[in-house]
Amino acid sequence: MPGTTTLSEHIRSLMIAFGISPHELAQVLQTSDRTVLRWLADDTYPQHETRKMLDELDALVHRLHTSFDPPEAAEAWLRSESGYFGGLRPMDALLRGRVDAVNSALEALDSGVFV
Q: What is the pTM of this model?
């Protein structure tokens, strides 16, 4: 996580990058809505596993930005049905906390395996 921003700023930037709500971020991180709201208020700080997942989300944002130009194309890809996910959207995998699966799909896309 970036060291120059507050936790709430960081959380908000992730929600903007993925076009998701606090509720959806809670799904991604497999935590409660109330916990995410506490982070947004800078009342509490994520524990070890959640910090790791936030780092993985940061890396995914970076990967999306390097794979897609303009950034809106990344959001379109996340929200479009994908053969890689059996007709589901990459966002569906993300909302299930499967950052690894979304990264794998991007790797396949970048290597030209899936068009």
A: 0.88
